C-alpha cells in the first residue's frame, strides 16, 4: 500500500502526470547533439583557463611584496592583486565542482563517448572520492530524496531540518554546525558516507570501516598535498632564484599561496553549500516517511522529487555557476539530463505542475536561503 502524498490527485492522475513527464524527458534526451557537446567543452576550457589565470595573478602579486614587511602601500597592492587571483581561482573551483564535476559524474555527458568526460573515470577537485560520492549521492540520495531513515542528506547527520526528525539536545548547537558545515563543506562531503554513518550507529565494526576510511584518506591526502604543499612549494622555489624581484622570505611566499588556496576552497565551499541547501531545505519543501514511498511507482517518484525540491531564480551566469542546481526540481526529476537543458525544461515542468495542481517551489536566493537559515534556528529547539 502506498500512503497518500500531500497532493489532491487520484492514482490515475498521478500516473498520467508521470507519463507526461516521461514525454518531456524522452524528447530532450533524443535531441542531444553537437550544441550540447560544444557547451560542455566550452565550460571545461573556460574553467581551466580561469584556474590557470587565477594562479598566475596570485603569483604576480608576490612581486609587489616588500622586503620584510616594509612599505604598507606595497603590501596593499600585493594583497589586492592576490585577492583578485584568489577570487578567480575560487570561481574556477566552483565551476569545476558544480557545472562540470557534479554533472559529469551524473552521467549527463556519457552519451558523447568522450573518454576524458565519462562518469566512471572523472575525478573532481574535491576531498570526496568520486566513486564514493556517486554512490552516496547518485544512488542513495537521488533514489530516496528526503525520505527519513534512507536519505543521509536529510540534515547530513548533524542538523534537524524537519519537525519529523525527533529533537535531541545536540540540535541546540546546530546554528554553529550550520556555519561550520558551510565553511568546511568539502570536508563534510568527504565523510558523508553510509559506511561511516553505520559505524556511528553501531551497525558496523571498525574493521569493516577501515578500508573506506583509507580510501577517503588517500583522496584527502592528495587534495591537501596539491593545495597546501605542491602549489605553495612551487611558488616558494620560484621565488628563490628571482629574490631580487620577490624580496620576501620564501616561507612567507609559501604561506601566502597556501592561504590563497585555502580561501579559494572556502569560497567554493560556501557557494556550493548555499546552492545545495537552497534546493533542499527552504520553506515549502516536503520530507517523507518510509510508509509514504512504499510501493512507489515512477510517476510517484517524479511527484516526490518535485515536492522535495526547490528552485532558485537567477540569470544565465547564476545558473551556470550553480551547476544549474538552481533548477534543483528539474535535476531531481531528470538527474542524467544535460544540465544546460534544465533552463528550457523548467517552464514546461512548472506548467505541467500547475495543470495538475502540484506545488512548484521557486524563489529568489535571499528567500530560499533566508527560510533555510530560519528553519535551522527554529528547529534547533524542541516543540518547533
TrEMBL record:
> What transmembrane ranges does the database entry give?
52-69, 75-95, 228-246
Keywords linked to the UniProt accession: Membrane, Oxidoreductase, Transmembrane, Transmembrane helix
Membrane among keywords = yes
Its EC number is 1.14.19.-
- Identify which top EC class this enzyme belongs to: oxidoreductase
Keyword Membrane belongs to the record: yes
User: GO molecular function terms here?
Assistant: oxidoreductase activity
Provide the Fatty acid desaturase domain boundaries: 75-362
Specify the superkingdom. Bacteria
Name-wise, this protein is Acyl-CoA desaturase
* Organism of this sequence: Acinetobacter corruptisaponis
Amino acid at each position: 500500500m502506498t500512503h497518500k502524498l500531500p497532493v489532491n490527485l487520484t492514482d490515475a492522475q498521478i500516473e498520467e502526470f508521470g507519463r507526461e513527464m516521461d514525454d518531456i524527458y524522452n524528447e530532450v534526451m533524443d535531441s542531444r547533439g553537437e550544441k550540447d557537446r560544444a557547451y560542455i567543452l566550452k565550460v571545461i576550457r573556460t574553467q581551466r583557463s580561469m584556474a590557470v589565470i587565477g594562479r598566475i595573478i596570485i603569483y604576480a602579486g608576490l612581486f609587489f611584496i616588500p622586503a620584510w614587511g616594509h612599505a604598507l602601500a606595497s603590501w596593499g597592492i600585493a594583497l589586492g592583486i592576490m585577492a583578485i587571483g584568489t577570487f578567480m581561482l575560487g570561481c574556477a573551483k566552483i565551476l569545476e565542482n558544480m557545472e562540470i564535476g557534479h554533472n559529469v559524474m551524473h552521467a549527463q555527458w556519457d552519451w558523447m563517448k568522450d573518454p576524458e568526460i565519462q562518469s566512471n573515470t572523472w575525478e573532481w577537485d574535491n576531498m570526496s572520492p568520486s566513486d564514493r560520492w556517486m554512490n552516496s549521492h547518485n544512488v542513495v540520495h537521488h533514489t530516496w530524496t528526503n525520505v527519513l531513515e534512507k536519505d543521509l542528506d536529510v540534515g547530513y547527520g548533524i542538523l534537524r531540518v524537519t519537525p519529523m526528525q525527533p529533537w535531541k539536545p545536540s540540535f541546540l548547537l546546530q546554528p554553529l554546525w550550520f556555519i561550520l558545515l558551510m565553511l568546511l563543506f568539502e570536508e563534510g562531503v568527504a565523510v558523508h558516507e553510509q559506511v561511516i554513518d553505520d559505524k556511528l550507529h553501531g551497525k558496523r565494526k571498525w574493521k569493516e570501516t577501515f578500508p573506506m576510511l583509507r580510501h577517503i584518506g588517500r583522496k584527502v591526502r592528495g587534495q591537501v598535498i596539491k593545495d597546501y604543499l605542491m602549489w605553495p612549494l612551487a611558488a616558494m622555489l620560484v621565488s628563490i632564484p628571482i629574490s631580487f624581484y620577490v624580496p620576501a622570505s620564501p616561507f612567507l611566499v609559501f604561506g601566502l599561496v597556501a592561504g590563497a588556496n585555502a580561501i579559494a576552497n572556502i569560497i567554493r565551499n560556501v557557494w556550493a553549500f548555499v546552492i545545495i541547501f537552497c534546493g533542499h531545505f527552504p520553506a515549502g519543501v516536503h520530507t517523507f516517511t518510509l510508509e509514504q514511498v512504499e510501493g512507489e511507482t515512477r510517476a510517484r517518484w517524479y511527484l516526490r522529487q518535485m515536492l522535495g525540491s526547490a528552485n532558485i531564480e537567477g540569470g544565465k551566469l547564476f545558473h551556470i555557476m550553480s551547476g544549474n542546481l538552481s533548477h534543483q526540481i528539474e535535476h531531481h526529476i531528470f538527474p542524467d539530463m544535460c544540465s544546460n537543458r534544465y533552463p528550457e525544461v523548467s517552464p514546461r515542468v512548472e506548467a505541467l505542475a500547475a495543470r495538475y495542481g502540484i506545488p512548484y517551489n521557486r524563489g529568489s536566493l535571499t528567500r530560499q536561503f533566508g527560510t533555510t537559515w530560519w528553519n535551522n534556528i527554529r528547529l534547533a529547539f524542541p516543540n518547533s
